[in-house]
Amino acid sequence: MKLIASLLILAFFATVPLWLQDQYYLHTLVVTGIFMLAAMSLNLLLGFTGQLSLGHVAFFGIGAYVSALTSLGFSVTIFGMPIVHEPWPPFVGLIFGALAAGLCGYLIGKLAFRVRGAYFVIVTISFAEVVRLVSLNWVELTNGPLALPGIPPMTLGFEWSGYLTLWGKAQNYYFVLAVIVLTYVLIRRLVYSPYGRAMIALRENETLAVSVGISVTKYLVLAAVFSGALAGLAGGLYAHYIQIIDPMIFMFLNTVTMVIMVITGGKGTLAGPVVGGLIFGIAPVVLRSYVGPEVQWILYGVLMILIVFVLPEGIVPAIERWFNRGGASRSPTGRGASSGGSSGDGSALALSGSGKGNS
């Protein structure tokens, strides 16, 4: 039943460019999809390992700049040594952007996961600020506050088969939709693998998980690498779609947007960032058509507060609980099915067995 519903929803979104004639709204959906992908990456840390990163926009921006510079080419001098890079195809730049962000996720994970709580949050915020200052002041490479213009649009294909350049909004929409679907499948496979179950066990009861042999650093760093790489992929998509980036891409509001999408949709669920992303990606555009900027942001904030107040676990867990209410009433513990890999009482015990062999 869930598979049929998922296929119907996917089929609906696949038809959107066929009947949505307003290009502005189609542009909004493309940008919303890109930030939805970034929120899905953040959910790996916040939802499945319980680690709040308020510097996640750093990986997004790193992916954007690396992908853009790989596609544009550059010439810099480092320690008196000139380095010249000729332009490469945008698709290669997208891959390099994801790899660079994943590498930064590994380095930050190795350093930051030695501390927890507020200290971890401070480390991630500091990292984002350092990256922003580098992009602002390394003018020879990033063009500083003058922005990096002329980024080529995404190009697919090979030399022997011909290239397809994604100039139109509909083409970019389908490409972003395909990336979201593939990312969703990848995250789902990770979450339901022994590695993902070990991450959830650490979130639910770290002391118990460690006692059965699950390595804290190993699995948290793995989550940071995947999360950073996916955020870098989203940043690369953003750079090639907008075709111009500047240090404003690292502004804190972008991280807040990702966190809002995850929290309101339902952290620790697979569909949570998707639902939250749709609501808070489209809501400002819809409100803009009826009210002024000041009232628009007030209503935006009221909507977010109402969702968090009425549905503290998020929209997706609430919907799943409504659908599983009958099954929950028959459950000896009074709990329904867990959502998106989230686990209830005793889940750390159930999950630790599969994670122990991978520590």
TrEMBL record:
CDD domains per the UniProt record, alphabetical: TM_PBP1_LivM_like
Membrane topology: Multi-pass membrane protein
A cellular-component GO term for this protein: plasma membrane
Compositionally biased intervals (Low complexity): 327-336
Record's subcellular location: Cell membrane
Keyword terms, alphabetized: Cell membrane, Membrane, Transmembrane, Transmembrane helix
Single Gene Ontology MF annotation: branched-chain amino acid transmembrane transporter activity
InterPro entries on file: ABC_transp_permease, LivM-like
Protein name: Branched-chain amino acid ABC transporter permease
